[in-house]
Design brief:
Blueprint: E1 3-7, H1 14-28, E2 35-38, E3 55-58, E4 61-62, E5 75-76, E6 78-79, E7 85-86, H2 91-123, H3 133-142, H4 151-176, H5 180-197, H6 202-221, H7 231-237, E8 239-240
Helix pairs in contact: 1-2, 2-4, 2-6, 4-5, 5-6
């Protein structure tokens, strides 16, 4: 899990953000370090200069769901659950972001694992040519395996594995709020079935497999869509001038 703290050197709220992040890591049971970027430092990445101070990113996403602005020197305001404005994210807000990011990673892994049997079944050849069976028997015999004509069960097995793969994509979509990978997965399943069992076309089948791989990749890359806790607060008041600690 990649955690980044973005801050201005003269922002008085950085210490509170570090303290909240330490408490959130302990609460979420996450054992990791975070990286800090001073916005004005030459070594800081370009994207860090577009956020206010302090900002905490978890796997590249702002914990408050804010999009970066033009990067004017300013301190941020956060909206607590009770509607109060705070100068740093709360422990609960940070721990929720950490837990949500961990869940997205697990869902992505499950989507990938659930799709592997479907891809394997789609790549299996149909043993519809009895004249080819001796060649298959010889090849499998060299590997110490016996020849089995699985063609009668290939359609059912492929269909079951494709359903499992699409189901995993649907679970990921329900958690992330992004439905494009699921739509691609459904389309790829239809293409694989038509290409393999209707058209008997390797090109069409391989195209469906490639589309399924693309759906898996998008599912693992897309992050959950999360709205800020207080839209009225962050719309017009998410930035304020830098103030001294006395204020």
């Amino acid at each position: 899990m990649k955690i980044e703290l973005i801050y201005d050197a003269d922002c008085p709220n950085v210490a509170a953000a570090r303290l909240a992040l330490t408490g959130a890591l302990a609460k979420a049971g996450v054992s990791t370090r975070w990286q800090e970027w001073e916005r004005g430092a030459p070594r800081s990445p370009v994207y860090a200069r577009r956020f206010g101070s302090p900002t905490i990113l978890v796997d590249g996403q702002d914990v408050a769901g804010m999009n970066p602005d033009a990067g004017d020197p300013s301190c941020r305001l956060y909206c607590a659950d009770d509607g109060r404005l705070t100068r740093a994210p709360s422990v609960d807000q940070l721990s929720s972001a950490l837990v949500a990011s961990g869940k997205r990673k697990h869902v992505g892994v499950r989507s990938t694992v659930a799709s592997l049997p479907a891809i394997g079944a789609a790549l299996l050849p149909k043993l519809t040519c009895p004249l080819c069976w001796p060649a298959y028997t010889a090849a499998l015999g060299a590997l110490g395996l016996g020849f089995v004509d699985y063609t009668p069960y290939l359609l059912a097995a492929t269909l079951v594995f494709l359903v499992l793969a699409v189901g995993a994509l649907a679970l990921a979509a329900s958690r992330s709020g992004r439905w494009m990978p699921l739509l691609l997965g459904v389309a790829s399943a239809g293409i694989v079935l038509i290409g393999k069992f209707t058209l008997d076309s390797g090109w069409v089948t391989n195209g469906g497999i490639a589309l399924l791989v693309a759906a898996i990749f998008l599912s693992t890359r897309m992050r959950a869509a999360r709205s800020p806790a207080c839209e009225a607060c962050v719309k017009d008041e998410s930035r304020m001038p830098i103030q001294s600690p006395e204020n």
